[in-house]
Design brief:
Chain lengths: ~350, ~210
């Protein structure tokens, strides 16, 4: 199983208490990508956000810098909010990252649970489903060949249009991202796309039912079984000992969640619940390397996923501790998982 | 006492979790989504084995109790005729930050369930099961135990409310009568009760603490 990291570009907190610069957060993110490559991790994802805390608004730009300064790690969006973007542009940007990295770029396309991009780019949230379906359709079409003829509702038709550069190996890997709506698992299976589950709370294993739905839909649609792949993205953090990992992560994770909860009318997270969710079958992977490796393997045995990647830098988590966590993921967790699943 | 059959309209996260939980508690479930039943067949087979996939109209007519677990944006597509005279649980929420502005609710000063009742004029709407995360339904259900997590219900028909209190108890939770449907705003998004974990007495205090 591949192990990796994803990030929305967490802004630091300055000694005086105010938020640090968004530009610094982008540079920190690039440093994290480079370290992840050096410690042997398999994937780094950058997730599009447009907030003062999470300024990674253009994943492909950051990934291009990562592509030029890393050797082996795969680089992807996690996720790109396809509904409010231009699929032609998205394809071109990731094909460019793919060219620079010689075939290491991937697109993970989602509908997005944070919705700032809709007003920012002038889209109506009411069109959410239709926008996503149409733009995904065009993106897949662009992946088939350099000349594209296509028509849809939200833009003028393309007639034998040339879309370049072409990906290093002819095609980009395009994943469908979902937070657990059954319809999305069904859709990924019917379209024959690999699926990426964002499991950010509750019991992680409840997604095994959805994974079964995905596999059944994929098989019944008759797609090439080699493309049937599942990945899991979840919050997590590592320190040498379990208690300090959980304490540190709770301090920052709860701050990030609190901001979302306030906006959407949910209560703030409780430590008791966090402790439950960051043990055994829970969705939060904060702990010691041994503990996290064991829990990833246990989930793998239930879900059969091929990649597990963690979001660690949330709620102004200190950059130094973030880098240490990435290092532990690569140097401690990865060998333990490899050994267990060999 | 024999349990009524359950119709569930909406086969997303909430609808499928409720269907599994209800079947575990001995209910027969008729599950519908807003699309054609063909796309639902596989969903039901894998996610809610034992539930019968049907159209929304059939879920409404075959269910003794009917739960609305679809996006509130689609409520005007509900089968009004088939839902007439039925006890209908409104488990929907209006969350503009997640789902976008929906003028039918945004520009109406009534609570969302009153708006739904205003559309389903001949149904007996009870607001319930809306203020709990879908994942928590199956994780925290404790059938047959007192003093467990409690859910609020609001409605204008006492018999309908009794039926839903019994359903909630069968699903493994306590219930608390929050009053008429017009009091349903007390457990809408943004209130202390919404998403909060309480036993009945704590839930009562949370409902009282709500402000608009």
């Amino acid at each position: 199983m591949e192990i990796g990291v994803y990030s929305f570009g967490d802004v630091q907190r300055l000694p005086g208490g105010q938020l640090g610069s968004t530009a610094e957060a982008i540079r920190n993110l690039l440093e994290a990508i480079q370290l992840a490559d050096q410690v042997g991790l398999g994937f780094f994802g950058v997730g599009e956000h447009h907030t003062a805390q999470f300024p990674a608004s253009t994943p492909a730009t950051i990934l291009a810098a990562g592509a030029a300064t890393t050797k082996r790690i795969k680089l992807g969006s996690s996720v790109i909010v396809l509904s409010t973007d231009d699929p032609v542009r998205v394809f071109q940007q990731f094909a460019t990252v793919d060219a620079i990295s010689r075939g290491r770029a991937e697109i993970i396309a989602g509908r997005g649970s944070s919705v700032e991009s809709f007003p920012l780019f002038g889209y109506d949230l009411a069109d959410y489903d239709k926008l996503y379906a149409e733009k995904l359709d065009l993106l897949m079409k662009l992946n088939e060949g350099e000349r594209v003829t296509w028509s849809g509702e939200f833009r003028r038709p393309l007639k034998d249009a040339l879309v370049v550069p072409r990906p290093h190996r002819g095609r980009l890997k395009i994943w469908l991202a979902t937070g657990g709506n059954p319809e999305s698992s069904l859709r990924a299976g019917l379209l024959g796309l690999p699926i990426s589950y964002g499991i950010i709370g509750g019991r992680a294993s409840r997604f095994t039912l959805l994974a079964n739905l995905y596999r059944r839909a994929y098989e019944e649609a008759g797609h090439d079984p080699s493309g049937m792949e599942i990945s899991v993205a979840s919050p997590g953090f590592l320190s040498e000992d379990a208690k300090s990992a959980k304490d540190t992560f709770f301090r920052h994770w709860s701050r990030a969640i609190e901001a979302v909860a306030r906006e959407r009318g949910f209560p703030p997270p409780e430590r008791r619940r966090f402790d439950w969710e960051s043990n055994r079958d829970g969705a939060l992977f904060a702990g010691s390397p041994e503990e996290i490796a064991e829990r990833m393997v246990a989930l793998h045995r239930a879900m059969g996923h091929v990649r597990h990647f963690l979001q660690m830098d949330v709620g102004q988590l200190p950059h130094r501790e973030y880098l240490r966590s990435i290092e532990l993921l690569g140097t401690k967790v990865l060998p333990l998982v490899d050994q267990e699943l060999r | 006492m024999s349990r009524p059959d359950l119709g569930i309209i909406g086969a997303g996260r909430v609808g499928t979790a409720l269907a599994r939980l209800a079947m575990r508690s001995g209910y027969r479930v008729f599950l519908a989504n807003s699309r054609a039943p063909e796309s639902l067949k596989l969903v039901a087979e894998v996610l809610t084995p034992g539930a019968t996939p049907v159209t929304a109209g059939e879920a409404a007519s075959r269910g003794g109790l009917v739960i609305l677990a679809l996006p509130i944006r689609r409520f005007r597509a509900l089968p009004v005729e088939e839902l007439a005279a039925k006890v209908v649980v409104d488990a929907m929420n209006y969350l503009p930050e997640e789902d976008g502005i929906f003028a039918d609710v945004e520009e109406d000063s009534r609570s969302s369930s009153e708006i739904v009742q205003g559309f389903l004029t001949r149904s007996r709407v009870v607001k319930a099961l809306n203020h709990v995360g879908y994942g928590e339904l199956e994780e925290e259900s404790l059938p047959g135990i007192e003093g467990r997590r409690a859910f609020a219900l609001a409605g204008d028909d006492p018999a309908a409310k009794r039926a839903i209190a019994e359903l909630i108890s069968d699903l493994g939770f306590d219930s608390l009568d929050a009053g008429p449907l017009s009091e349903g705003w007390r457990f809408e998004p943004g209130t202390p009760a919404f998403g909060g974990r309480y036993t009945a007495s704590g839930l009562r205090r949370a409902l009282d603490a709500a402000t608009r």
